[in-house]
Amino acid sequence: MLRIERLTKLFALNSGCQDVSLACKKGEIHGVLGKNGSGKTTLFRCLLGLIPLDEGSVILESSLSTIRQFGYLPEERSVIADLRVTEMIDFFASLKQMSHKEIREEKVVWLQKLKCEHLKFKRLRECSKGNQQKIQLICSLIHQPDVLILDEPLTGLDISNVRLFKQVIADYAHSGKIVLLSSHQYEEIEPLCDSLTVLDKSKVILQGKLGDIKRNHPIKTVSVSEDAQMIYALQKGITEIRHEGNTTRYLCKSEADAINIATLALKNRDGRTIKVESLTLKDLLGDQQ
User: How many C-beta atoms surround the C-beta of residue 237 within 10 A?
Assistant: First the structure.
């Protein structure tokens, strides 16, 4: 269990974090979201002990030595370009006081999981940005931290590597670890997150289990493909209409209004795809990007 209690770290003009509390259980992926400058990175740096707290506390139930409790993938991408892949992994693992045997065994495992075996003798400067990102992820988790902190881990990755990263992150949490995840790619992280904390101007504005947040929101959506004419635009209860490619999304005041539109669409289906669903994370937090 990780518990953050009333954590406060302020800089000029009240930037930073104010009175942030949250709790995460083993096996949980917790999204820490918000606009640039909302306080996400400050929170992460406080957890890592990189900057001192003004107030509050961080409590982690762990059997690991303090130096191994956290792993961190920062938003700013940086590698030691002249090192070979294995040299960089060895260096970061040694900073976590891993033994030579541990490093050797874990390195094999993670190079395989991230599909990097063919890169191990290459210098980092010779690797693509996506592959450099993979090596940085390995460096952040090779010591098997109880809490893995990922700040914008999917930025700049192609589709196949986004899929790979998501699988590795999910598997790591399912092994009994805690993952704190920050990203502006809401559509990618939504399937991963069990719970959320949303920050704005250094303060928590929304927090809870993602399922509960979506379930308690009254607005539901109906998606209808091949609906460029917005056939159902005049139906009651519609608050907004959005176009996504050849699909029209009707945002409705209530589930009853959404079901009414879906029922009409089913009668006129003619090969169209029709979905009734709760709001997506992007719908809920679009203005927090």
Answer: 17
